Amino acid sequence: MPLMRIDLVKDRRTPEEIQKVMQIAYDLTRDAFGVPEDDRFQVVTQHEPYEMCLKDAGLGIERTDDVILIEILSTPRSMGQKKAYVQKAVKVFKDEINLRPEDLMITFATNHAEDFSFGYGKQQFLNGEL
């Protein structure tokens, strides 16, 4: 159950383009992590340009207001899975929406089965529902 947060600069994309970004990120997650169909949890937040400060840590990366930040919160994934996700994401986003590789930032965070409740005050992974 990856939870994906996608941050964008406000008014840079149409609703249809935002849904395309969401679909691409979901398809990449299914491919790289092997998650089942409909295991889809995504939240998009749009920000004023001054509300996003994504410096390059001295790497020489020059971002534009087209930047997309994808944060993936998931149960542990292998280094190979994460590497495959990042490498394929750059290619697919460039091919599908003409996003510059410099404008795609991806971060992973890990949590565990006991950290999820999908509703009803239950922890579905722990009680066997999932």
Account of the 3D structure:
With 130 residues, the chain is α/β, with parallel strands linked by helices. It has one domain: 2-Layer Sandwich (Macrophage Migration Inhibitory Factor), CATH 3.30.429. It has two helices and four strands; from the N terminus they run E-H-E-E-H-E. The protein is globular and about 45 Å long.
Q: Given the C-alpha coordinates, what overall shape results?
A: globular
Uncertain stretches of 5 or more adjacent residues: none
Largest sheet: 4 strands, mixed
Distance between the termini: 10 Å
What integer is the average pLDDT?
94
Total strand segments? 4
Number of domains: 1
Which radius of gyration do the C-alpha atoms yield? 16 Å
